[in-house]
């Protein structure tokens, strides 16, 4: 085995990526720890992998996420230090939201900085993730009382690149309701499109992708005024009733929230918004999905009781198929996150035909055009209120999101190049073409 894959938190998007690499990259072996007790994984996983990974002279590349303290592992296992070491950031701890500044544990961000210093290649899943990390290093280190290191960003930045998280979009045609099936065929990784240009970006300062001006995008009522959409939400070929068949007009708007049940996803804002819709006697249904961990915010049990008459689905769905079915039946997917560096769940929901509503912050402006972004809680409430009154505005809309840019079909070759020992310790121009 020439590629050693290590994952200290084998769950969620970390698991999705590792499974894709194991399946698609030749000559790999993996070692993982369950996705539990994240803080202990960040503190101690290096010691576990020191013992779990047997010495093997055939290893050439080591790939790990930033949960692992790579510096500790290399110190404990000098034989692994000779490999091409690739560090992948799903998130970064320098800007992770905490309720109070004194609650931030310095060690987690410090571990990630150390890991970057010993890695050969540092890869981020978004430009927002990379720039927020690099630009925060200096301020973060100032929390040290004295003898602060200098120029760490200058040492780390040349190693850094952006390679979007790759999603394998499944064919969900069989789960789509009539009004979604009326549109052109679903695009998925089972149907190979022409290869897109490389999505690896260097760490030189860059702006987010240009957003189409409103007049070039599909308006809320669903009139395609410009280019063919690249979303899986298909283009309507013919005029049709509100949702494709008789009686569908009466079905309430179905809102889905598919995020981790933790405070950084701001469930408080989401449920407060739904309670406002309820107080205004608006019709809607809600599905609250996503994984739960040790500490679930109290707002979930409170909201379940208060919204009981509106609930379609409540709780994590271990079956991916069942999860996709719910997304396909939903009309609008909402993020209220205070912490998001990519957002797989939002893109999966768009793939299933949902209209996205996201904060105008974090990674979202990098992925979603301005029409899907809200700046204030009041704007979010107003948009949902409009959709509750006229669900067809969401159901007939063609979402303008380039899903192909984030598909494994487009990004797989870049990951294979990343894991080649003979490609050198840094990317070269040929990888950026």
Features:
7-stranded mixed β-sheet; globular; Rossmann fold; 2 domains; 433 residues; 16 helices; 34% helix; alpha/beta; single chain; 6-stranded parallel β-sheet; 13 strands; disordered C terminus
If you had to describe this structure to a student in words, what would you say it looks like?
It is a single chain. The protein has 433 residues and is of the alpha/beta class. Helix content is 34%, strand content 14%. It contains 16 helices and 13 strands. It has a 7-stranded mixed beta sheet, with helices on both faces. α1 links the parallel β1 and β2. α2 (38-52) runs parallel beside α3, α9 packs parallel to α10 and α9 (267-279) crosses α14 (377-389).
In short:
The chain is α/β, with parallel strands linked by helices. The protein has helices spanning 12-24, 38-52, 70-76, 78-81, 106-118, 127-141, 152-156, 178-181, 267-279, 299-306, 320-329, 344-351, 364-367, 377-389, 392-395, 408-418; strands at 3-10, 28-34, 61-65, 84-89, 121-124, 160-162, 201-202, 253-257, 284-288, 311-314, 332-334, 355-359, 373-374.
């Amino acid at each position: 085995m020439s590629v050693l894959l290590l994952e200290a938190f084998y769950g969620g998007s970390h698991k999705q990526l590792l499974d894709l690499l194991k399946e698609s990259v030749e000559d790999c072996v993996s070692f993982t720890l369950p996705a539990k007790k994240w803080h202990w994984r960040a503190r101690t996983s290096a010691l576990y992998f020191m013992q779990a990974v047997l010495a093997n002279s055939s290893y050439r590349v080591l790939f790990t996420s930033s949960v692992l303290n790579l510096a500790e592992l290399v110190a404990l296992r000098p034989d692994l230090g000779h490999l091409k070491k690739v560090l992948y950031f799903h998130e970064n701890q320098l800007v992770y939201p905490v309720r109070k500044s004194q609650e931030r544990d310095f060690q987690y961000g410090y571990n990630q900085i150390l890991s970057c210093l010993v890695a050969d290649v540092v890869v981020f899943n978004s430009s927002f993730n990379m720039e927020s990390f690099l630009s925060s290093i200096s301020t973060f280190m100032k929390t040290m009382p004295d003898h602060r290191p200098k120029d760490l960003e200058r040492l780390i930045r040349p190693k850094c690149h952006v390679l979007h998280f790759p999603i394998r979009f499944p064919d969900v045609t069989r789960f789509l309701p009539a009004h979604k099936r009326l549109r052109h065929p679903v695009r998925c990784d089972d149907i190979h499109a022409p290869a897109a240009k490389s999505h690896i970006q260097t760490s030189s300062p860059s702006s987010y992708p240009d957003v189409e001006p409103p007049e070039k995008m599909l308006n809320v009522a669903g009139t395609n005024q410009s280019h063919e959409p690249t979303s899986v939400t298909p283009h309507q070929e013919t005029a049709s009733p509100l949702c494709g068949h008789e009686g569908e007009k009466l079905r309430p708007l179905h809102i889905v929230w598919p995020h981790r049940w933790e405070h950084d996803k701001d469930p408080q804002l989401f449920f407060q918004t739904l309670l406002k819709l309820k107080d205004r006697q608006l019709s809607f249904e809600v599905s609250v999905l996503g994984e739960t961990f040790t500490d679930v915010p109290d707002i979930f049990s409170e909201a379940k009781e208060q919204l009981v008459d509106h609930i379609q689905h409540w709780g994590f769905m271990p079956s991916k198929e069942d999860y996709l079915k719910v997304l396909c039946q939903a009309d609008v997917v909402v993020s209220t996150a205070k912490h998001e560096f990519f957002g797989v769940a939002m893109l999966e929901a768009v793939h299933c035909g949902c209209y996205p509503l996201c904060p105008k912050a974090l990674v979202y402006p990098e992925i979603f055009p301005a029409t899907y972004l809200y700046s204030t809680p009041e704007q979010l409430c107003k948009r949902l209120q409009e959709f509750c009154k006229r669900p067809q505005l969401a159901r007939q809309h063609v979402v303008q999101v380039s899903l192909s840019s984030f598909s494994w079909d487009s990004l797989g070759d870049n990951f294979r190049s990343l894991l080649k020992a003979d490609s050198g310790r840094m990317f070269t121009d040929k990888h950026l073409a």
